[in-house]
Amino acid sequence: MGQICSKCGALMPDDAVFCGNCGTVCQRDSFRGNVCRRCGKPLEGEVL
Within 10 A of 36 (CB to CB), how many other CB atoms are there? Predict the structure, then answer.
């Protein structure tokens, strides 16, 4: 069904996670690991 953005309340895909460093919403990326595509920091959020 998706998850709700903690910042704006928008519906996001189930595999979307936040970067705690810059706030970017990223899709889960199993090839690069759970890091932000913008700044490279580990992502916050539940990644299944």
Answer: 22
